[in-house]
User: Fold this.
Amino acid sequence: MPTDRKPTASVWTRPRPRQREQLTREHIVATAIELLDAEGIEALSMRKLGTRLNAAATSLYRHVANKDELIQLVVDDVFGELRVPAADPAGWRAAVTRTAGDLRAMALRHPWIAPELGQVGLVHIGPNALRMSSGLLAQFEAAGFPAQEQDRAVGTLTAYVVGIAASEAAYLSLIARSGRTEREWVADLRPALDAASQGHPRLREGSSARQDVDPQRIRDDDFAYGLDRVLDGLTARLTA
Assistant:
């Protein structure tokens, strides 16, 4: 096995090219996010992005090496929307709850991002993502978690939030494509759901109890319930 293997390439560790034109990396990233928000990840290509920028696709490669690098940049730029509160031993749970809610809201504003977070994985070392992760680590450190568990606590929290947000984003994207509001979509689905659940009284009872509740409120309440149970479990570690 060769001993001189090159380190994994990353847009964050490669020297940034000198600016020679009006087209900037920041402009490319901002336009890519607009395209992603409007049309989804499947629509993103260097050619299509170049058309939006009135620039040849080849000119984009002076700023980003490939589409994978562009994804790293747009994901980190979106992470810049988050602000993690200062670490507070007395208020760590409230601060973590707020950050989790902000992360979910960010993922729902940009429905394409949640599936990408898992794919970016270890190369996700942009400054905004690192700042958020460091801020959450500081919260769990202030709470009293031992050093070897702080990273696991952050991973548990973000896995819950990203998993829920990915499911919600897919659901809301489906509704958006239908041209209906969430209330309309749920109301139209109810007759089929009632018919399908005839032989499942527990499902029918739970569905009937929620039929007059705003579906967005249901999603918000379900997210809050799950988040509280995750934090209950983590908090139990402090007294174990």
In short: The radius of gyration is 22 Å. The chain is about 70% helix and 0% strand.
